[in-house]
Automatic annotation (TrEMBL):
The keyword Membrane applies. Keywords: Acyltransferase, Lipoprotein, Membrane, Palmitate, Transferase, Transmembrane, Transmembrane helix. The lineage of its organism: Eukaryota, Fungi, Dikarya, Basidiomycota, Agaricomycotina. It holds the Pfam family DHHC. Its main location: membrane. This is Palmitoyltransferase. The DHHC domain is required for palmitoyltransferase activity. It is a multi-pass membrane protein. Belongs to the DHHC palmitoyltransferase family. InterPro entries: Palmitoyltrfase_DHHC (IPR001594), PFA4/ZDH16/20/ERF2-like (IPR039859). One of its GO terms (molecular function) is protein-cysteine S-palmitoyltransferase activity.
Amino acid sequence: MVLISAEMACSFDVIYSTRPFKFLTGPICTLIALNMFTHYYLVFCPQPPKTFPDHLLWALHERPTDGYAYRAFSSLENGLRGDERAGSLNITEITKCRKWGKMRPERAHHCRICNRCAMKYDHHSPVSLFSRMNQCVGVYNERHFVMFMMYVCLSTALCVLLGYQQFLNALGLSFQVHFRAISCPVIAYLLTFILSCVLCFAVGIMLIVALWSVMKGETSVEAQDHEIYMKVALSRGEAFINSYDLGKTQNLKLFFNMGEGGYPIYTLFIPFRILPYTDGRSWARRDGFERHHGVSRGEELTDDEIDENDL
């Protein structure tokens, strides 16, 4: 966050001061920065509230919440949200954690770092050069994680596209634009520009992989499991079909919880916190499917470090 904050400060100081129509570009740049930092913060807040959220930072749902209150999840029947949309919304089966030996909802996965099960576990975001998250990414914060990556890519791409002339001038390779800054040292701008290039490339690849998984209706862990399921199904002369895959467009709508029964489109541009379409105990499936085709009961791989020989 220190690196990203430094990049944003240098961008506003050096690049924004040279842009025309500041009254228009200023609010847009501020909104991009606000989205990036807010979604980063919301990744740390994956736990759901015990009552339906009524707070300024929460987006308003498109339909009334009467009879649909977001109560404590003591009953599986409270798990269905957005049942107007295509596909069947089914209560998932209860699976057993092979690490703890405890029961948990389907699509849950044991995180060996946190030593607990997370619903719709995608991955554990560790402490790294570009991230201080150290947080499981699952059903309640995966949307904010993807949105954070989207706005990181957008902000760094704009920094590179709009600031390359200043970068060349700071290196003495161009004299078309004078390097102007209020308080940003030249070396700081050079380093943050290079950082923006690296972040845009690295996070951009991560974003493409994440969105592709979303469009296929699977998490990164499930994508690895599905490759094994395909081999097992093929060995029996069957075809594996992911029952969570409702089509690329519908998968995106459900992931971002938009469209009929979900949230309005402005939630992609204003950093409100929103609920997923499910509480992790029920999932939208293809019509006519109660489970994956080509996988028999008890063959599911839902825990880390499970070898395919365990099938």
